[in-house]
């Protein structure tokens, strides 16, 4: 005879409690652990089951049970960590809060970002204390990353179109991610490269001699990982049209061809449009402007750059092109497809959350 588990008590929030929890989520200085506990309580208050909250927030069911029980027993105070035995703290919560707010909302007068030394001088604390606070709250003022939000008015439609091709390949068709890696430079170091020896890394001169440039047109097969490539000295619509002709010859005639491209002008010239009219099996799908990350061939270009071009030494464009062709041949002997996992809804939700976050940042 099966035994039912005892029914868990419902969790409800007052207006004041909900406001505090939502405020903890919005505030950038909130510890990640406290923010996660706030999300758990808010999700439970919506009536979701423990397993559903666990799945939605990607945390263990026991974690959901623990903080649900702590909130029911102690309210908002139950979400804070309990005091631990040991030496009494020398840095108060007010000191921690002061460092965090100063780090997030101010900059030093003589620099673009804080260092542990400058923050210690501004707050009267030690460098090690500042360093510990920054590590605890995952703050790294010395780091900066680049980003760009697309302003394409058809951003949502294009994301759904491209991601739909990745996740649900059409029947009797190929999906090819196409782009050009232009201005690949043939660089020769001004002095010979010194090889690596035990205890000493490879060394190369900081300056170099330019020997010319080439452009690689590439089409990545999303199903197999194979790449069709073509090298040209110029980067115009005429070269792109030649590359389309090459694709038409290499792709079996019984298959439709879906090309994922960016919005570069050479992809939309009258000559290219006329070529497409005479080759109706080709279908073009454009990524949103400023969203090259949606094109999987960019990932392949990254492999080529890191493994062949970045530390390569070439005394001529011919030598550079020979190395690229050899690398392309080796890749196609053992192709590795890049698997797309995010759905369009997950991407759009992530972008929306990021936009909401930066709109609330006060900058």
Structural write-up:
This protein folds into 3 domains: 65 residues; 44 residues; 183 residues, Nucleotidyltransferase, domain 5 (2-Layer Sandwich). The termini are far apart. The radius of gyration is 28 Å and the shape is globular. 44% of the residues lie in helices and 13% in strands. Helix 2 packs across helix 3 and helix 6 crosses helix 7. The mean pLDDT is 88. The chain has a 5-stranded mixed beta sheet with strand order 3-2-1-4-5.
Write a compact overview of the structure shown:
By secondary structure, the chain is an alpha/beta fold. Helix content is 44%, strand content 13%. The chain has three domains: 15-79; 93-136; 155-195 and 203-344, 2-Layer Sandwich (Nucleotidyltransferase, domain 5), CATH 3.30.420.
Question: Mind sketching the topology for me?
Answer:
Layout: H1 15-26, H2 32-45, H3 50-57, H4 61-74, H5 93-105, H6 116-123, H7 127-136, H8 155-167, E1 173-189, E2 208-221, E3 227-232, H9 237-250, E4 256-261, H10 270-277, E5 282-286, H11 297-309, H12 317-333, H13 344-359
Parallel strand pairs: 1-4, 4-5
Antiparallel strand pairs: 1-2, 2-3
- Calculate the mean pLDDT score and round it: 88
User: Total number of helical segments?
Assistant: 13
Query: H/E element string?
Result: HHHHHHHHEEEHEHEHHH
Query: What gyration radius follows from the Cα positions, in whole Å?
Result: 28 Å
For the terminal residues, how far apart are their CA atoms? 62 Å
Strand content: 5-15%
Fold-level CATH name of the largest domain: Nucleotidyltransferase, domain 5
**General form:** globular
- Structural class, from helix and strand content? alpha/beta
Model regions low in confidence, pLDDT < 50 over at least 5 residues? none
* CATH architecture designation of the largest domain: 2-Layer Sandwich
In CATH, what is the class of the largest domain? Alpha Beta
Which sheet architecture does the biggest sheet show? 5 strands, mixed
* Biggest sheet strand line-up: 3-2-1-4-5
Bin the helical content: 40-55%
* Quaternary class: single chain
CATH homology group of the largest domain: Ribonuclease H-like superfamily/Ribonuclease H
- What is the total domain count? 3
Number of extended strands: 5
């Amino acid at each position: 005879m099966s035994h039912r588990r005892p029914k868990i008590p419902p969790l409800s929030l007052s207006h004041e409690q909900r406001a505090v929890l939502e405020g903890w989520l919005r505030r950038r200085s909130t510890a990640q652990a406290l923010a996660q506990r706030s999300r758990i309580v808010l999700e439970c208050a919506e009536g979701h089951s423990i397993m559903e909250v666990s799945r939605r927030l990607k945390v263990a069911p026991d974690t959901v049970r623990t903080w649900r029980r702590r909130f029911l027993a102690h309210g908002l105070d139950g979400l804070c960590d309990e005091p631990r035995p040991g030496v009494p703290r020398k840095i108060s919560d007010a000191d921690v809060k002061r460092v965090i707010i100063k780090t997030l909302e101010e900059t030093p007068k003589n620099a673009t970002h804080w260092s542990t030394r400058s923050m210690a001088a501004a707050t009267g604390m030690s460098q090690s204390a500042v360093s510990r606070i920054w590590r605890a709250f995952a703050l790294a003022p010395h780091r900066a990353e680049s980003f760009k939000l697309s302003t394409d008015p058809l951003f949502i439609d294009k994301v759904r179109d491209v991601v739909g091709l990745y996740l649900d390949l059409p029947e009797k068709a190929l999906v090819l991610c196409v782009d050009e890696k232009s201005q690949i430079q043939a660089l020769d170091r001004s002095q010979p490269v010194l090889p690596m020896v035990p205890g000493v890394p490879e060394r190369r001169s900081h300056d170099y001699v330019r020997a010319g440039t080439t452009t690689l047109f590439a089409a990545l097969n999303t199903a197999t990982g194979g790449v069709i490539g073509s090298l040209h000295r110029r980067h115009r619509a005429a070269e792109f049209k030649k590359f389309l002709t090459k694709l038409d010859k290499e792709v079996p005639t019984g298959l439709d061809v879906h090309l994922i491209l960016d919005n570069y002008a050479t992809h939309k010239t009258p000559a290219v449009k006329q070529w497409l009219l005479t080759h109706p099996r080709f279908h073009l799908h454009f990524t949103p402007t400023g969203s090259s990350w949606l094109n999987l061939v960019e990932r392949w270009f990254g492999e080529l750059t890191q493994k062949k071009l970045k530390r390569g030494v070439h005394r001529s464009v011919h030598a550079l092109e020979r190395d690229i062709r050899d690398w392309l041949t080796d890749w196609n002997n053992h192709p590795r497809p890049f698997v797309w996992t995010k759905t369009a809804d997950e991407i759009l939700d992530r972008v929306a959350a990021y936009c909401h976050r930066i709109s609330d940042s006060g900058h």
